Amino acid sequence: MTDNKGQSKPLSGRVAIVTGAGSGIGRAEAMMLAALGAKVVVNDLPRGAPTSAEVVAEQIRQAGGDAIAANASVSSLEGAESVVRTALARYDRLDILVNNAGFGRVAPIWLMSEKDWDAVIAVNLKGTFAMARAAIPSMIAQKSGIIVNTSSEAGTGETYLGGYAAAKEGVVGLTRAIAREVARYGVRCNAVRPRAFDTAQGTAAGYEKFQRFARKFGRPLSGTHPMGPIPGKADEVASIVAWLCMDECSGANGRVFLAGSGEVGLWEEPRTEKAFFDMNGWNLERLTAIRDHMFFGVRNEFAELPSEALDILDERAAAYLKLTENNRGKQ
Question: What is the CATH number of the domain that holds 81?
């Protein structure tokens, strides 16, 4: 595909699947990939008539791109395989997979229902696995392919979002595993932790809450450092994801990127902060001897939050709970 000036677009000839692309970040990613020349399979749940995926696919076509909808839940192997079959039947190849589908359920761990836990894990983590499992054979056969998974800063631990945190950090571990397995076949896999505040789940008010918490208490409400200088937008995240799909980023594999709010960052891989060795192995007596060294500078910072900070957390959870209850009613 070329633009109106006759110049080739960077993703011309590529075929992409974007899951959860009926709205929000996923829609922005699908539109961005199409604008850069990719043919796009737009996936989402079969809601509405036309479905949200069909609406976005039509918007891409109206803008001069090539797209088809794939209405299916990616939380099952059968659903994921049907999405990949749609791509191969229509375009006869698959170059890019963006695993965006996901949602959270708000509840303290001790009150979270089994149904909510299973639903969150099924879409966020199992859905990422199911789509990768279905897509990778075609990419191996081509000896090329790119997978971008969607994690979250919630994966570092987020109050009242334990299931979502577990699923999203599970996505990071899965990303690293996939990258190691498929690199020899010319396929790579990375993940992003997006920051967008113009979607149904991320709002400008939410961004201000993050900022207010960090200013007042000197630590981020979520993640490892405060939000960037501007409220992130879905299009900004989409630009970073699309960039990671380009050949110029081919050196990145098995890595995690922060995306949005005026910031793009490469996360450091996990490593031991400090370590002690004993050739005889450790027992309680020897562990006690190194306790002060091991725990120097370590404190239970979560137990030290003042009541005002807890109030902000509870206020945010209440707002998010209302949102998720509204979304649940639409499913």
Answer: 3.40.50.720
Q: Where are the alpha helices (DSSP H) in 269-306?
A: 284-289, 291-294
- The domain of 90 spans 15-202+228-269
> What is the domain count for the chain?
1
Q: What is the pLDDT of residues 27-73, one digit of tens each?
A: 999 999 999 999 999 999 999 999 999 999 999 999 999 999 999 99
Q: Is there a domain that residue 60 lies in?
A: yes
CB 81 within 8 A of CB 97: no
pLDDT digits (tens, 9 = 90+) for 156-213: 988 889 999 999 999 999 999 999 999 999 999 999 999 998 877 777 777 777 777 7
Let me know if residue 276 belongs to a domain.
no
Residue 206, helix vs strand vs coil: helix
Residue 264 lies in a domain: yes
Q: Map residue 266 onto helix, strand or coil.
A: strand
* Whole-angstrom distance, CA of residue 158 vs CA of residue 201: 15
Helical residues (DSSP H) of the chain, grouped into ranges? 24-35, 52-62, 77-91, 114-121, 127-142, 162-182, 204-217, 234-244, 284-289, 291-294, 307-330
Q: List residues with catalytic annotation.
A: 164
